[in-house]
Amino acid sequence: MNNNGWKGMNVLPKRPISAEDLYQMKFAGNPVVSPDGKSVVYVLTEISEEKNGYYSSLYTGGINEKPVALTQPYCKDKLIRDTHPKWSPDGTALAFLSNRSEKTQIWLLPMDGGEARQITRCKEGVRDFNWSPEGTRIVFTTTEKEDTKEDNEDVTVITRLRYRENGAGFLDGYTQVWIADLETGESQRITSGPYNHHSPSFAPSGDKMMYLAAKKDNRELVNIDQLYVFDLTSKTESILYEGKGPVVDPAFSPDGQYVAFAGHEEGENSRGSLANATIWTVSTEDGKVRNLSTSLDRFVGNYISTDAVYDTGGRLLKWTEDSQSVLFLVTDGGDCVLKRVDLEGNVTDAAVEPNSVITSFDYANGVLAFVRGDQHSPGNVYMQTDQEVVQISCHHEKWLSGIQLSTPENFKFRGADDWEIEGWILPPVDRKPGHKVPVVLEIHGGPHAAYGNAFSHEFQLLAANGYAVVYTNPRGSQGYGQTFLKGCIGDWGGKDREDLMRGLDYALEHYAYCDPDRLYVTGGSYGGQMTNMIVTRTDRFRAAVTQRSSSNLYSFFGTSDMAFYFLPAQLGVQDLWEDEETLLRFSPIRYARNVKTPMCILHSEEDYHVPIEQAE
Q1: pLDDT at 399 exceeding the cut of 50
Q2: Is there a contact between 40 and 393 (Cβ–Cβ < 8 Å)?
Q3: Is 273 a residue whose pLDDT tops 70?
């Protein structure tokens, strides 16, 4: 692999990683390939210790050119975020989102020089956008608030079930689709009504566009999008595909004959909603639907959990220029790789590097660009042609060259029912031969996430302080097929807990430096729920840290922004009254009197998935 001329850093004495090293980390993400395939633009996100937050700028580089900054915004009073870059079809300009003004708006940067200019001035900012094929229009979505006509501004009127959302707080209004004309500077609204429209894009012909929206009467209970096509000439809307489950990241084929998307047809809030999300196509001529990647028993997307990635790229799939294949991300064991599926359903590798995780990608003119990290790197931008793979970015190598990192060891063991389970152990840095070390059992959330071959600051920090870290993918984790994925449904804290404890016992038996008398356990979200349940069942651990965890599913059902559809999918419950016993049976709080392990409870005040009352 070509490293694009990057020189090796001077060899200096290395030190252990520290908590403060978080501020040294730089995260590359959201690569977009220029139409000619020669350049890539990506987002670089950094952390401000002074302002306690993230800021980001845009960089560009290529196979024969080192990356340089395209934007370097600065504001004394706030952190500037330049994100979501998208090339104009002719490659002469770059549109992107930025909060330089009061709200996040679309900005346009000429690639031959000059300053970026603001395109939109939406009162509530812009959420998403795409270019028209001829490059003179941009379609975007923005939230339009409802007029509650309340005299008291301190009063919030709630009239819908899905009224609050993680990261957004109370929801006010609905997202609508607009089109901005770059030549006249005028914008035209396309959609209306009490519906959230999103993921808009133009057809290759330019006279139609598509978007997603849930408009059925039961949309508050079952939020399933339909795929709409809007005719810009007749101003009429029609349904191209009636969603029967999630419909994610729809994209027109370059010839306009198909729309590809990721999803399945087994509903939102049933146990069947844990079907694999695969690559589908729907014909724009007759509406015929096909599941292309059904032969691949894996879920589309990256589900590898880590605390050391900040990638705003959300693309799951991309068509090739000939409209004959779709590229897509897929989690496979502890890796996230790029696959390709053709219109006949044949799945092949597109970019597969063992022991690594691809977090985002793009493709144009025969060139792939992607962000790939591994156990020792948060991720760099790469470009791949038929001849070579070239590393483009190198923003954290200087910092990492001075850090002494530990290297995980992979192992497999037999869990409950003799299932094969994958795990890793991260030994402590500078471990002395013959000395026993304390062990931390880490548990991922989800439950349908996964650990894997990604860099983890938390794990490396524990290793730097003399701990061995054991982390595994118990049943319910992504990356091992649908049967494995559904293995914890209706059995939280049952066989999945047994998998976790067997993995710990395997590490204690096979790695002699692990001290069985100094064990600790921690996890976040579902991992926190599992931490809670574990310490109600055993006193093996000297201490536990439960993070953003659920403890009382009865109250969780009514206070979480997702529990009323999440718990039916996970545990088969229908409501608080008919299934009270089931909810309490899976609630750690019922067994709290058994806990003798010292516990630290960590929670976030604005966590609406798992509200802070679960900690309180």
Answers
A1: yes
A2: no
A3: no
| Radius of gyration, alpha carbons of the chain | 25
Cβ of 23: how many Cβ atoms within 10 Å? 12
DSSP 300-346: BB--B--SS--------EEE-TTSSEEEEEEEETTEEEEEEEETT--
| Bridge partner residues of 105 (DSSP) | 98
CA distance 568 to 575: 8
Q: What confidence tier does 516 reach under pLDDT thresholds 50, 70, 90?
A: very high
Q: Indicate the residue type of 515.
A: D
* DSSP structural state of residue 417: G
Closest CA relative to residue 72, chosen from 38, 17, 36, 116: 116
Residue 53 tokens read as 């937050």
Residue 144 clears pLDDT 60, i.e. is over it: yes
- Side chain identity, residue 204: P
DSSP bridge pairs for 58: 43
On the question of pLDDT at 118 being above 70, the answer is yes
* Whole-angstrom distance, CA of residue 541 vs CA of residue 471: 15
Buried-exposed string 496-505: b where 16+ CB fall within 10 A, e elsewhere: bbbbbbbbbe
Closest Cα to residue 2, out of 61, 44, 58? 61
DSSP 8-state assignment for residue 222 = S
Distances (CA, A) of 27 to 19, 41, 378, 462, 482: 17, 14, 7, 21, 32
Going by pLDDT thresholds of 50, 70 and 90, the confidence category of residue 272 is very low
Cβ-Cβ contacts under 8 Å for 591 (sequence gap 6 or more): 533, 536, 537
340, 370, 369: which is closest to 356 by C-alpha?
370
In contact, 285 and 316? CB cutoff 8 Å? no
> Which helix (H) or strand (E) segment is 368 a member of?
strand 367-374
Model confidence pLDDT, tens digit, residues 477-489: 999 999 999 999 9
155 vs 574: CA distance, rounded Å: 31
What distance, in Å, lies between the first and last C-alpha atoms of the chain? 52
Tokens of 611: 């509200």
C-alpha 256/C-alpha 207 separation (Å) is: 11
Asked whether 333 and 480 are in contact (CB, 8 A), the reply is yes
Confidence of residue 586 (pLDDT cuts 50, 70, 90): very high
pLDDT-derived band of residue 145, with 50, 70 and 90 as boundaries?
A: confident
**The pLDDT of residue 253:** 98
Q: How is residue 542 written in tokens?
A: 């000297």
- Contact (Cβ atoms closer than 8 angstroms) between residue 279 and residue 251: no
Find the farthest-apart pair of alpha carbons in the chain and give their distance in angstroms, rounded: 78
DSSP secondary structure code for residue 445 in this structure: S
Express as a percent the part of the chain with pLDDT over 70: 96
Q: What angle do CA 222, 225, 230 make, to 5 degrees?
A: 150
pTM of the model: 0.93
Cβ neighbours of residue 248 closer than 8 Å, sequence gap 6 or more: 261, 262, 263, 277, 316
- Tracing tokens 């069942």 back to the chain, one arrives at 537
Using DSSP's 3-state secondary structure scheme, residue 253 falls into: coil
Pairing of strands 514-524, 543-547: parallel
User: Is the pLDDT reported for residue 522 higher than 50?
Assistant: yes
Those residues with Cβ within 8 angstroms of residue 281's Cβ, 6 or more apart along the chain or in another chain: 253, 258, 259, 260, 289, 290, 292, 326, 343
State how far the Cα of 202 lies from the Cα of 452, in Å rounded to an integer.
Answer: 37
